[in-house]
Amino acid sequence: MKKSALITGITGQDGSYLAELLLEKGYTVYGIIRRKSVADYGNVEHIKDKLNFIYADMTDIVSLINAMKIAQADEVYNLAAQSFVATSWEQPVATAEIDAIGVTNMLEAIRTVKPSARFYQASTSEMFGLVQEIPQSETTPFYPRSPYGVAKLYGHWITKNYRESYQLFACSGILFNHESERRGKEFVTRKITDAVAKIKYGKQECLELGNLDAKRDWGHSKDYVYAMWLMLQQDEPDDYVVATGETRTVREFVQVAFSTAGIDLEFHGNGKDEYATDKETGRTLVKVNPAFFRPAEVELLLGTPKKAEEKLGWDRKISFEELVERMVKNDLKLQSK
Questions:
Q1: Looking at the whole model, is its pTM more than 0.85?
Q2: Hey, which of 69, 78, 173, 313 has its CA 20 to 30 A from 6?
């Protein structure tokens, strides 16, 4: 029998890579999208004819129950979220409705329509926030530092609660930062690579960023969605950290990005007065802007993927350097047109 999968957030970065993976594996793939005046297929525009779209919303349980009735999904991947951390301070209630209550709505829809369906919840390393140990694992205490992290923590715990209370096959993937060429420009990594390409082609003067000392564990989305799929193929449901085990500063990301475009940077000063110049021309290309600092900063995120590697047989294929290189080359191509 051909398996059926339902993906929320299918038009996003992860949703698109996951949809491609499931299609390759012979699934019938359904994707939830919100009704808009103009249809927006986002990152799945190139495969939209191979997908089945259902109009629904994470804040409307009736629409999610209807989506489950239509899809009769064997596997449900909940990737829908208000996922931009900065916006979560500006829209904390909306973030909670989507990222917290929305998870409960999806779980209830599964429990009502097809309790045998396997469920994946997209948890996040932002739940660790003010980290209590290094590196962070599945047993590290949580300490979220943003409305986004708090809402995601609710989603994480309600998933575990439904697993233990209703015996649902429900898993959470605690994914550390994962990027790609399909990342939205509001995220710092894509903001950097987009700016590098524009600066290279004379379309932008300078890149302004917040905390250059913030450290993140960066991997590629394509590797991480494979871990999602593996979680739902196991005999028993469980939660897993998906990470690289390496941490890099925003400054390092900036350096590699500019280097990929053939520009060597030299950094000067520190803190809010830090800036970087082109070694060849002396032109200032990067500045720190305190306006981009978070109200509560997450200084260091570093995960250990040991459990995922040992129990799932997961490993990553794309290195940090290749990740940045792919993103920069993609943006250079876009800006050259």
A1: yes
A2: 313
Contact 54, 67 (CB under 8 A): yes
pLDDT in tens, 123-161: 999 999 999 999 999 999 999 999 999 999 999 999 999
Query: What tokens were used for 225?
Result: 């969605």
User: What are the Cα distances from residue 26, in Å, to 51, 96, 180, 283?
Assistant: 12, 35, 24, 52
* Among candidate residues 58, 6, 66, the one with its CA nearest the CA of residue 232: 6
CA atoms within 13 A on the CB side of 199: 27
**3-state SS, residue 30:** strand
Spatial distance between the Cα atoms of 178 and 125, rounded to a whole number of angstroms:
10
Alpha-carbon gap, residue 95 to 109, rounded angstroms: 20
What are the CA-CA distances from residue 302 to residues 136, 179, 216 (Å)?
A: 6, 15, 6
Q: Which member of 126, 179, 181, 325 is catalytic?
A: 126
Distance separating alpha carbons of residues 221 and 39, to the nearest angstrom: 24
The yes-or-no answer on residue 124 being catalytic is: yes
Q: How far is CA 188 from the centre of its chain?
A: 12
Output the six-digit token pair for 221: 């989305």
Helices and strands (H, E) in the chain, number of each type: 11, 15
Catalytic residue among 8, 95, 124, 193: 124
Out of 17, 27, 120, 148, pick the active-site residue: 148
Best CA proximity match to 160, nearest among 329, 234, 135, 152: 152
17 catalytic? Reply is no
Cα–Cα separations (whole angstroms), residue 97 to 65, 101, 321: 17, 5, 36
Radius of gyration of the chain (CA): 20
Q: How far is CA 82 from the centre of its chain?
A: 11
